[in-house]
């Protein structure tokens, strides 16, 4: 009589090797559910193959089936090695057969069969030394898992760390960005030693003249033949320009005045020429102010 097809599978990891067990979950539903749930929850961890006889190897002494009577199936018998069974009652427990055990048929539940190299692992475990029916150095089971559960309501093992991770919210990691220091450039004549930054502020020619009191409250028209001071003279004189910077401008104005003395060549400057002269003056002023500021920075760094 052939055995029915298996429908579930568990795996036991021992110190001597891995043992795969296929279960007849359809034919033996109650006991199979109990064993599959124990394997899925890693219930065989830290249990041992603790004893042996001529026919069987006992293991997982701590696990006892809930039902007191065995589940019997007409096509399942302890007629060969490599079968897994369960004893019920006070002396109940799990075991694996090392050979035919006909005396156990009808008294214990035929649960499953060992497949693959697990038969050799069980044979090596059964060959170990015994002391009063118990192994002197028992083989320990380090892990169990359910590979094919068959039943839909099997709950797998969830470690405490995984449970805490599922229950607690995920921590929010804050990304810190390093702020770069702001550099502000200042071209003011009066520098404040307490300010680390530099401040760049642009002013028009009219504001510069107004700040230095170069424009009077009442403007008087020049008399005929008198020389009108240009914008470059006013700003450069207000900012303390050096004599070397002012001389070319004065020479230029002298040549312009001599050429304009003749009535037929006398003309006034256009707006574009005045604006160009103002821009040249501002560029020269900014260059000198920046050079003065760089000198002060070098001096402070050396100190």
Q: What brief labels describe this structure?
A:
Cyclophilin_A-like, alpha+beta, 7 helices, PPIase cyclophilin-type domain-containing protein, rod-shaped, 31% helix, nucleus, eight-stranded antiparallel beta barrel, Cyclophilin, 303 residues, peptidyl-prolyl cis-trans isomerase activity, Cyclophilin-type_PPIase_dom
SS class: alpha+beta
Q: How much helical structure, as a percent, in the residues?
A: 25-40%
CATH superfamily of the largest domain: Cyclophilin-like
Tell the overall outline. Answer: rod-shaped
**Biggest sheet overview:** 8 strands, antiparallel, barrel
> What is the beta-strand fraction?
15-25%
The chain-level mean pLDDT equals 76
Ends distance: 104 Å
**Count of helix runs:** 7
Total number of beta strands: 9
The residue ranges in which pLDDT falls below 50 over 5 or more consecutive positions are 159-172, 190-198, 212-223, 234-243, 262-266
CATH third-tier fold name of the largest domain: Cyclophilin
Please explain how this structure is put together.
By secondary structure, the protein is of the alpha+beta class. It folds into 2 domains: 8-157, Beta Barrel (Cyclophilin), CATH 2.40.100; 205-213 and 238-302, no CATH class. 31% of the residues lie in helices and 19% in strands. Strands 1-2-7-5-6-4-3-9 form an 8-stranded antiparallel β-barrel. A hairpin with a 2-residue loop joins strand 1 (8-14) and strand 2 (17-23). The longest helix has 32 residues, at 271-302.
